[in-house]
Amino acid sequence: MTAPSEKRQKPRLRKTSELDTILPRNTTRGVQSIEIGGKLLAALAEASGPMMLKDLAQLADMPPAQAHAYLVSYRRIGLVEQDETSGRYQPGGFALDLAIGRMSGVNAELFATEFAQELSQRLGLSLVLASWGPVGPVVTSMVEGAQQIHMNSRAGSIYSISGTATGQLFAAYLPIDRVQEALRLQSLADLRNAIVGKPRPMPAEDLAQIRAQGFATLIPPTVPGVMAISAPVFDEGGQIRLALTLICSEEQLDSAGWAQQLPQLIAAARHLSQQLGHQPAR
Known about the structure:
transcription regulation; transcription
């Protein structure tokens, strides 16, 4: 079973964002003009560098004249800067101050757990969050979905690096020396019985494929009948911080499951990464 491949396209803002399909929108009344102008800020966040007005307006799905009016106001308060020579726009100093203030108050694991709870409730599936510890991936929290899945996992469980989707995801993104040291420790008799998942071959080409597709899964699965798909959550330095792993039965992960659940998992992991300050290179 393999996931359908998708051609990488130039990122664009949609009228309904990826996250709108994951979590319900807040229907509390707000200021519409601020929400409209926020499309420009979102477009700047999506961009790989400074942008011309016409390109920025196109990404934000608004007329250039309207975009220019918002940008004038954003320049006045420091949210946006404009290069005097090229005329291109980029986030300003005030935007950086806001980002630093946001990051200083973020508890990544707590924020991710709350997000996973909402996502699990929406999908009706179980989710596991794991971080990297001295001997490999460690479960930081579990959210059980509506369907009961038998898993030998709980908060504090140590996952096999080669024998779980979560472990192979970390192995694909972490420096090889850190992975090799953890593999050595996991092979010790004192730890072997405490680790979830039996070791299996982990070729370098498999790890390269994980990086290329942006998620990891194991076939055949670690637990017969139970599938796991793991997506990376990166921090502001571009390093993998957490693994967000979806757990479901093989029956749920048929072709329809791949088409519906995988994109939502990847979108959720990207959203969490952005909340932790990660700005992916385009």
